[in-house]
């Protein structure tokens, strides 16, 4: 019996085989059962195994299967090739009779050559064609957004219904959205919360193979894995159940970038030290939401950024290149949201703005909405939401100094007031503390006890 068969038999004895029955993700991306099913060549996988052994020393077959995210039967075939080429040797048996392998002198030399070509060490990549099909199967257009779900998901958020009824169709359409308005009107907050409307989960590859080089896609800082009932400490990558473990099952991604954005971040990045290619922002955001915040304050000119997006927005795919100049095309299935304090026509010409499906302005709050946010912020801080204090802030401070009612003000003013109270060893919110907070927050408006400057 092969290694794969022994592991399957043990799992079946424990009844583990039922966990992934009818798994839609397994149907969408089935586990490779044979080497040919991976789309990868035996020499490529042999080099990948050699790199793992070079990095970690002696490894058992089960551990190599886990690290490469390939079934034991496939690993046995790859290891047989390495043994035939005298690149590895058996180094004894591990737990439960698992054979352990290490590199020979020839194997170490070949591993160094492989690392010089491509420094990637991790789960086996998927092919570009495989990823393209997967991205299309889980595209945003297959989920959709309806009015009832939009209003239900934002029920805990103070936002005008008419604004929601513009954001909903924008996200449903999959077209780019331009959110603009004065600073503090809640644009960034709402833009990021739009990710809650993205239904379903997606499979994100650890890496994609392009012209013999692995491009890392999965990013723990962006992608949020979800529990997969088809995986477990015993079954892992060893059984023919569950989805292809070269993918990670995740929530739809949310990528948000602000003033730190550069032109280089929109292209494949290559690390000279590790010799590894990293996917750009938009590729990591595929099948999800990409928010470009504080537009106009990046280290890339707005028009240069817009020109970079013209083809992807029109054709729904993007052109990238490896360090050696090898070009390749990837899907561009991204809900793109621009957020800015500037007027759209100050950033782009009308021709480009026509390509932006939705332009949504965020304005100051009504009195009722301001009071609602004030009450929410008080509750979150364990404060009593005094209507008299809220009215004082609106009628005596905002009105006196002609400051619009913005969503950021309750949070910021209450935060400063609590700092003041903590410093004084007090716990009860007072008008004096609110005046002090206002003066610190709006220094240019003068002393609240005197006249505005």
Automatic annotation (TrEMBL):
Species per Swiss-Prot/TrEMBL record: Halomonas cerina
Stretches assigned to the AAA+ ATPase domain: 173-362
Superkingdom classification of source: Bacteria
The protein, known as: AAA+ ATPase domain-containing protein
